[in-house]
Amino acid sequence: MTTTASASGRTGQFPFDFAPQRTQDADLLRQLDFVPGLKEILALRQVHALEHATVWVLGQSVGATTARTDNELLGGMSTDQGFYLYGHVNIAQLRQAVREALQRIAGGEWDLAVHPRCGTNLSVAMLLTAGLAVGINLALPRGPLLQLFGLGAAAAAAAQLAPDVGSLAQRYITTAIPFNLSVVDITVSQDFWGREAHFVRVRWVE
C-alpha cells in the first residue's frame, strides 16, 4: 500500500543476486494448494507490487521525465482482487499506466515493486521502535532520565534503519513480481470506508 503524502529507484537486480522466477508462485500454489488462503496471499503480494509500479509510472508521466519521480498526491491500497488508486487521475491515463507498469515490472524492472511511501515502511518503523525500546529498557538502569534517553535513542535508531529494512521487507515479504496477473478492468468504485477511488481489477493466470 502506498500512502497519499521523493524518491528515486534503481532498475535491475534485487540485492543478494536474487532473481524472481516467472513460475515461482504458480509452482508454490500447485505444491501447496491444500493450504487455505495461499492463493489469496500470493495474489495480494503481486497486486501490491503492481500498485507500486503503477504509482511510479503515473508519477513519471506527471513529471514528463524519464527519471523516476514520486507523485505524492497519489496513493493506493491493495487487495487480492486488485487495487484502489486514490488521487486525481484520468482513467485513460491510468489504463495506459497500468499496462506499462505490468509490462515493465514483469520485464525486469523489479525495483518498481518497492515504494518509499508504502505502509510496510511505517509498520517496520513501529516494530523497530518497539523492539529497540524494550531492549534498551531492559538493558539500562531504571532511572527515569536514562530510560528517557534510551527511548529517544531507540526512536532515532529506528528512524535511521526503517527505510532500508522496510525496503527489504517489501522486496521479500509484502510484494512479489506480478507474473501471474492480468488486468480485467478499471472502474470508479468505493473502498471499504466509502472513499471514491479507481479500482484496478485483476485476475490470476497460470
Task: Describe this structure as you would to a colleague.
The chain is an alpha+beta fold and 206 residues long. The chain folds into two domains: 130 residues, no CATH class; 45 residues. It contains five helices and four strands; from the N terminus they run ααββαααββ. Strand 3 and strand 4 form a beta hairpin. Helix 2 packs across helix 3 and helix 4 packs antiparallel against helix 5. It is globular. The two termini are 24 Å apart. About 4% of the residues have low confidence.
Specify the biggest β-sheet.
4 strands, antiparallel
Neighbour order of strands in the largest sheet: 1-2-4-3
Range of strand content = 5-15%
- What is the overall number of helices? 5
Total separate domains? 2
Low-confidence stretches: 6-14
| Structural Rg | 19 Å
